[in-house]
Amino acid sequence: MTTGRRLILKLGMLGLMPFSAFAVCRQTEPNALGPFYRRDAPFRSAIAAPDEPGQVLRVAGKVSGVGGCRPLAGAVVDIWHANEEGQYYDVGSEAGSDPQGYRLRGRLLTSGAGEYEFLTILPGTYGSRPRHIHYVVHHPQAGSLITQLYFEGDPRLDSDFLARESLVMAIDKSSGDTFKIRFDIVLGG
Questions:
Q1: Strand, coil or helix: what is 8?
Q2: 126 is catalytic
Q3: Set 81, 88, 102, 138: catalytic member
Q4: Among 38, 58, 126, 182, the one annotated catalytic
Q5: Of the residues 134, 135, 138, 139, which is catalytic?
Q6: For residue 3, is it left (φ>0), alpha (ψ between -120 and 50) or beta?
Q7: Which of 132, 138, 139, 150 is flagged as catalytic?
Q8: 20, 50, 63, 71: which has the highest count of C-beta atoms within 10 A?
Q9: What's 27's DSSP letter?
Q10: Residues 37, 101: contact at Cβ < 8 Å?
Q11: Do 20 and 69 form a contact (C-beta atoms < 8 A)?
């Protein structure tokens, strides 16, 4: 360990300097955009309509920059996914209950602390693909990232050529009717 790192560690242990001031962030691994992206989804935190069939899922996380792990306020988080049967809406003529064709799609702005949260349903699988949620995240100073969130325990993860271990998150099923998952994102700028 270098002298500088030892000093930082000692100052942190003494409470004189927060450890987070020297945190090292690793950029979130990019992943495929996929064929079903659609621009200009509405800004909303309820991605699934109340009558959307499926297991309710709350996704929360923080968007940070790779330099110092600082939270990024005002980042745009654009997400979309399949329904519980693995079908994407607004592909062709199928818009479901959303007349604008943005069913199970939405955008969010991160808070001053870089936090985001949305309510949706657990997506289904299709073909050999595991359950996943698509993300496009953009911040004016930190750049853009295209990635996907995958769910721990999905048996299709091992055979999917797009799935990456760093993008697989555990589902918290302890909250009764609503599953929860945390997916923090680091932009590389």
A1: helix
A2: yes
A3: 88
A4: 126
A5: 134
A6: alpha
A7: 132
A8: 63
A9: P
A10: no
A11: yes
* Catalytic residue check, 134: yes
In angstroms, how far is CA 39 from the centroid of its own chain?
17
Would you state the structure tokens that stand for residue 166, as one six-digit string? 């760093």
Output Rg (C-alpha) for the chain, integer angstroms.
Answer: 18
> Exactly one of 81, 107, 129, 139 is catalytic; which is it?
129
Tokens of 21: 């001031």
Q: Please, which contacts does 39-42 make with residues 24 or more away whose CB atoms are closer than 8 Å?
A: 41/78, 41/80, 41/102, 41/105, 41/106, 41/107, 42/100, 42/102, 42/105, 42/106, 42/107
Q: Where are the beta strands (DSSP E) in the chain?
A: 56-65, 76-80, 105-109, 115-121, 132-139, 143-151, 168-169, 178-182, 185-187
Q: Name the 3-class secondary structure at 171.
A: coil
- Is 42 exposed, middle or buried (CB count within 10 Å of its CB: 0-12, 13-18, 19+)? exposed
pLDDT in tens, 44-79: 999 999 999 999 999 999 999 998 899 999 999 999
**What is the value of pTM for the model shown?**
0.84
